[in-house]
Input
Amino acid sequence: MQYDEGWIVAYAMALEQKAKALVSRAWMTAIIIGAIALLALISVPLGAQDAQRNSFIFFVALGTIGLGFFLANRAEAKAAMIRLQAHQALCQVQIERNTRK
Output
């Protein structure tokens, strides 16, 4: 089996792209969830007769926004782990370069 530095570097770059895509999708999902929650808030007129319904919709919207940020935060953590794997792969390449000298 032959050592191929290019394959490891390509793998590290693919991991970095995966991390970026994960974060982008998570924030887009959070924005969409937040927009849906805001639309729910806007659709209820202020001062409507049913105060319980209004407060329920408000708390559901607030919870939905919180869920969006929670999901985005989890994606950021997962992306950090993926970036760490990419960094470890690049460190292995550098170690191999140093030991072959």
Helices lie at 5-43, 51-100.
